[in-house]
Amino acid sequence: MLEVVDNGSAPRLVVFDLDGTLYPRELYTGLVLDVIGAMFVELRGEPPDRAAREVAELRELMRTDWSRTSATAFVLAHGVGVDQWREYRDAHLSIADGVRPDERVVRELARLRAVVPIALLTNNTTGAAEAILDRIGVGARGFTAVVSADDVGGRPKPDPGAFRVVLERFGVDARHAWGVGDRYDIDIKPLRELGGAGIAVDGPADLPAAVDHLVGLLSSG
């Protein structure tokens, strides 16, 4: 089911999330939890039982409060630097291996890109994001631009600064930007705080309805 947060504007830019939005979140959660546990042991020297308890905390947050839960924000809050997390994740996490082609995602993104610029904003590194996009079948070329963790410095989502990077790259005011993602607090709320709008989805199955809504706004505007 879609959750539409409207501000009365037609989009001049649509900013998509990747994990859980363009492929099912179930492919992401188990893998990222394993990597975080290993990282806490290896980089922070935590006893395995303590790392397991912290991972269990994140697992429960993902289960009960997915819309507000960011793995990146979690590891930063537990004392891992943003560059450490990016490097460790890039070296040890390969979500792309489990992703399958999805013609629906390819079709819907192409349908929207035909009428408005679309960007991808992800806390993945560029290499990881491109590998996932290639496996889906859309590739980085399916977006007008891809903005990754490598481009936003120390301000990944849900920091509004990550969205400012996208807005500045396109020269679009926030009130004319719409976000699309599966976590309201991570993918929609930061843009909303800047004046934008957005659509929260449950995953790729909701993309046709989200695109219908955005195309309708353009048609009526």
Automatic annotation (TrEMBL):
SUPFAM superfamilies, per database record: HAD-like (SSF56784)
Protein name: FMN phosphatase YigB (HAD superfamily)
Lineage: Bacteria, Bacillati, Actinomycetota, Actinomycetes, Pseudonocardiales
GO cellular component: cytosol
A single BP term in Gene Ontology: DNA repair
Pfam families, A to Z: Hydrolase
Signal peptide: none
Molecular-function GO term, any one: phosphoglycolate phosphatase activity
